[in-house]
Amino acid sequence: MTKFKLGINMGFATNRFPEPEVWLRIVGKDLGLRCVQFVADLLNPFLPEKVIEREIIKLKENATKYNVKIDTTFTSTFTRVNHLMHPDALQRKVWFDWFRRWFEISAKLGARGSGAHFGTISVTDFNNEKRRKFLIKEAISSWRKLARLGARLGFEFLIFEPMSIPREMAFTIDSTKELLQEVNKDDLPVPIRLCLDVDHGDLASSDPRDADPYTWLKELAHLSPVIHIKQSTKDKSAHWPFTEEYNKIGIISPLRVMEAIEASGAEEVVLLLEISHRERYPTDYQVIDDLKKSVEYWRKYIKE
After folding, report:
1. Domains and CATH numbers, the chain
2. How far apart are CA 115 and CA 40, in angstroms?
3. Is the peptide bond before 213 cis (omega within 30 degrees of 0)?
4. pTM
5. Mean pLDDT of the chain, nearest integer
6. What is the pLDDT of residues 157-178, one digit of tens each?
7. What DSSP string runs through 161-190?
8. How far apart are the first and last CA of the chain?
9. Which class for 284: exposed (0-12), middle (13-18), buried (19 or more C-beta within 10 A)?
10. Cα–Cα distance between 176 and 162 in angstroms, integer?
11. Closest CA to 13 of 226, 193, 277
């Protein structure tokens, strides 16, 4: 029987609640959650070392104060870029060093794993078969090097997120399985796993499995220690909260999600609310209320 935990991805705090003492109070006190996926947009490794060290102290102090565990870390909106598949070799190297530093920060915060989307190929490179194959090979090599680094830092795993179009990688169930197999070959010191997302998958695929979030979960949740959840429609264009308004039109059902994960054979999974609000009126003023309602909705099914 799968053990479920409910947590939250911290993307909602980006540019709204950058202060550790504020967002940790929101998560721990207002939402009553104990597990978060911290994001690089709240502490970018490009910042000077003295800034990073000061923020780490504040993060750890407030995490203890509000009884919140920084369980994993991830990239987010500002850091969703080409990174390890950038067209320019020098910039790929810079981003490799960025990940190295990000993993070091994550380890200091007590995270058991970290990750990102696998990488994004530019349109020009994707349309050039030779370049496309080269960059995929480069990215696989980089992820394997990062896994060895993660092992030295005490990580249990690395994670990458399957996406929805070919140049963002892992866009179908079968291509995700193939990429997982390739990146994990020859025994790594820690495995590279997934961060599934119920809103992702290729709508243009000829295989209907690829547009069905429940099939993704049934086939891959056992390889995904954390999973992004949000309310969504069939066109997979939403990061909606689980409020009455959106639950009426959305296709994501807690019971169906949990049943699909159980069917995969997963032993333990953290379900992470990944809900986005535009910086517009009135949505920007509904964030906390919508998050509270979403937590209440899922607490009917996940008791901790």
Report:
1. 3-299 (3.20.20.150)
2. 10
3. no
4. 0.97
5. 96
6. 999 999 999 999 999 999 999 9
7. E--SSGGGS--SHHHHHHHHHHHTTT--SS
8. 15
9. exposed
10. 7
11. 277
